[in-house]
Design goal:
Radius of gyration: 29 Å
Helix content: over 70%
Order of helices and strands: HHHHHHHHHHHHHHHHHH
Shape: elongated
Strand content: under 5%
Mean pLDDT: 90
Length: 450
């Protein structure tokens, strides 16, 4: 009967699925689902024969046979999670990953580092579906498993194991940072009236018997409604930024270090959205500029694209500061002071300089046309934000802005694929090319009459 051969059958189906997954995930999925159905049909039957019974080398007890059969089913579920991920079915992949991790915990058969990283990675799926409670629970569980293992293993004399554990802790911290960024982004959308205030309220699947309530209590799993709520999320993330940077240092892991710094910049940006004091907003953005500018010392020969990304982000921050400074100047009693006007112009020039450095790294053919032309568009718009102290200066700024808009349209004329990826922006450029000459003519006529 089937139960006598179910163990080698499930094992064989698993192995065949692994082989097929290299070239054909659909076939691998069918094999694994078959293995799953065989297990479910036989698990209530008498203890199945294992491979050791078919090829005996030693005596195995009934308990060991049952445990072995359960373990091989856990492998089936683990492989199902991988195959569903390959087939881009993230939901089912997360379901099977969750079941696998729970079974591993119950059977006490797992590698603590691997288990924690799988739980942390699974949190990223739940984060994307706005299921922040489940995402938080996965990350807290990952942190607890690592902490327990480190405590039980101390003192750790093996340098390789010590580094592996430190890296794992840093990786979990980076997942916490992503969690906080996502939670703040969702909160900001509600603040800007662009998103739904409801979060995913699916039933929480807990990894029993892990005690994670203390860690879960350190950070929200609901959207922040005000600055205080956003700040609590920010401070929790900031702690993990420092922890991640303690392993991924600038000298030894430059790419990871820069990525963490960019995430830290995003955290400041999102916190600033909840701040009502314009001066404090400016200080937060200045902190971002200082943070990212310090990274521009990396090798231009090795990290040219990354340097370009940093210039683009810094240019955008300077532009945000320009808008804030203009608001502050307009709120002053009386006309803006020369100091305020000079500060605004300096910020405009800094924004243009950084966007210009970004576009200079490109050579034809350009892969990311949209981002490239967006930077050009920012430059055109920034020229209009200069505050001229004379009519001649204002005329020059309009002329400079017009030239960039014309450049973009000329680029469109010579690159047929631009229209499909930059359609709305092209319309704006066409409108500005019609309007700015009229404005320029008015300024020139005024100068002439003067």
């Amino acid at each position: 009967s089937l139960f006598k051969i179910c163990f080698p059958l499930v094992a064989s189906l698993n192995e065949l699925a692994i082989l097929c997954s290299h070239t054909d995930d659909e076939t691998a999925l069918k094999l694994l689902l078959k293995a799953k159905s065989v297990f479910e049909a036989c698990k209530s039957q008498p203890t199945p024969l294992t491979d050791k019974d078919w090829f005996p080398s030693e005596l195995h007890t009934t308990i060991l046979k049952e445990k072995s059969f359960e373990d091989i089913h856990t492998h089936t579920l683990y492989y199902l999670a991988q195959v569903y991920s390959n087939l881009d079915d993230k939901k089912l992949s997360a379901v099977y990953c969750q079941i696998t991790l729970s079974r591993q915990l119950n059977n006490k058969l797992y590698d603590p580092v691997e288990w924690s990283l799988n739980a942390a990675n699974m949190s990223q799926y739940y984060m994307q579906t706005n299921n922040y409670a489940q995402s938080r629970h996965c990350l807290a569980s990952a942190q607890v498993i690592l902490k327990q293992y480190i405590t039980e293993s101390e003192p750790i004399d093996d340098p390789a194991l010590k580094e592996r554990l430190q890296r794992s802790e840093a990786d979990v911290s980076r997942c916490w940072i992503k969690y906080c960024i996502s939670l703040l982004k969702s909160s900001k959308k509600v603040l800007d009236k662009e998103g739904d205030s409801d979060v995913n309220k699916d039933a929480l699947h807990r990894f029993e018997p892990l005690l994670v309530s203390e860690i879960e209590g350190e950070v929200l799993c609901v959207l922040a409604e005000d600055y205080q709520g956003a700040r609590s999320i920010f401070l929790f993330a900031q702690k993990h930024v420092q922890k991640a940077k303690s392993f991924f240092t600038f000298d030894n892991c430059v790419l990871d270090y820069v990525a963490i710094a960019q995430d830290y910049s995003q955290l400041f940006k999102l916190l600033a959205a909840f701040e009502t004091d314009l001066s404090l907003k400016c200080r937060m953005h200045k902190r971002r500029i200082d943070m990212l500018s310090s990274l521009l010392s990396i090798s231009r020969n090795h990290y040219l694209v990354l340097i370009g990304q940093l210039h683009y982000e810094i240019g955008g921050i300077y532009e945000s500061m320009v808008d804030l400074k203009i608001l502050l100047a307009n709120n002053e009693d009386g006309p803006p002071t020369p100091h305020s006007l000079n500060k605004i112009n300096m910020l405009v020039q800094s924004a243009i300089n950084n966007f210009q450095k970004f576009v200079e790294i490109f050579n034809e053919p350009i892969d990311d046309i949209h981002t490239y032309l967006t930077a050009r568009l920012h430059i055109a718009q920034l020229y209009s934000k200069f505050i001229g102290t004379s009519l001649e200066e204002r005329t020059q700024y309009i002329h400079s802005s017009l030239n960039v808009y014309k450049w973009i349209l000329n680029y469109r004329d010579n690159h047929k694929d631009v229209e499909s990826v930059f359609a709305e922006e092209i319309k704006l450029c066409e409108e500005m090319v019609e309007l700015l000459p009229l404005k320029l003519t008015l300024h020139i006529n005024f100068l002439f009459n003067k």
